[in-house]
């Protein structure tokens, strides 16, 4: 089952996400660490059968190439100072970051204008504002859930069969009984690794179908799952800024 999401971000978004999440100076990226985390995300995407664009693999190759250059011994000869192998990547990230900031600024202005035109009677200023979680926030939560499953469960014979359709029904039913549920809570019901994967695929499918929204009170905080009509009626959303 291939998952195609409108919220899906690109490889530079993933790099900026890792830089922000790890509080890294963009001008001094520890390439070995970031490369390892980047490749872990790609492995999880493959595990979930998420379609990976070729651009992700190009950036992966770029990171590996930079990493190899930085591992080479420095020759102490009188030559012009060599460029930092990370320099070109940093330039691309900074340019992309500026583009994203402008796009987010225009999008926010559009939202403000639409609220003004609609003349909503709801006092938006008094409401709690949430960020919409990015796909990378969701994958990171998924990775954490897999780590917390006891190792012996990975090797047990799975007798139960779980389907994405069944989990979609379960999640929607849960959101009828209560307005919102923590993503960690959904994962806590899983009996094994397979069920965690199916729950996560169901969440991605519901997001694609615009049935639910994954939100956060602040960047990198616990993810909350709500029905989309809940956010439209009562919860102003801000775009998740990667950096």
What does this structure look like?
With 243 residues, this protein is α+β, with helices and mostly antiparallel strands. It has one domain (11-73, 84-238). The chain contains 9 helices and 5 strands, in the order H-H-H-H-E-H-H-E-H-H-E-E-H-E. The chain has helices at 11-21, 31-47, 54-71, 87-118, 135-148, 164-177, 183-188, 193-208, 228-234; strands at residues 130-132, 180-182, 212-216, 224-227, 237-238. A 5-stranded mixed beta sheet has the order 2-4-3-1-5. Strand 3 (212-216) and strand 4 form a beta hairpin. It is globular. Mean pLDDT is 81; it is low at 117-122.
Could you give a quick summary of the protein structure above?
56% of the residues lie in helices and 7% in strands. By secondary structure, the protein is α+β, with helices and mostly antiparallel strands. It has one domain.
Secondary-structure element series = HHHHEHHEHHEEHE
Helical percentage: 55-70%
Rounded Rg: 21 Å
Shape: globular
Instruction: State the end-to-end distance.
Output: 31 Å
Instruction: Provide mean pLDDT, rounded.
Output: 81
Spatial ordering of strands, largest sheet: 2-4-3-1-5
How many domain units?
Answer: 1
Question: Largest beta sheet, briefly?
Answer: 5 strands, mixed
What structural class is derived from the secondary structure elements?
alpha+beta
Tally of contiguous helical segments: 9
What proportion of the residues form beta strands (DSSP E)?
5-15%
Instruction: List low-pLDDT spans.
Output: 117-122
The tally of beta strands, per DSSP, is 5
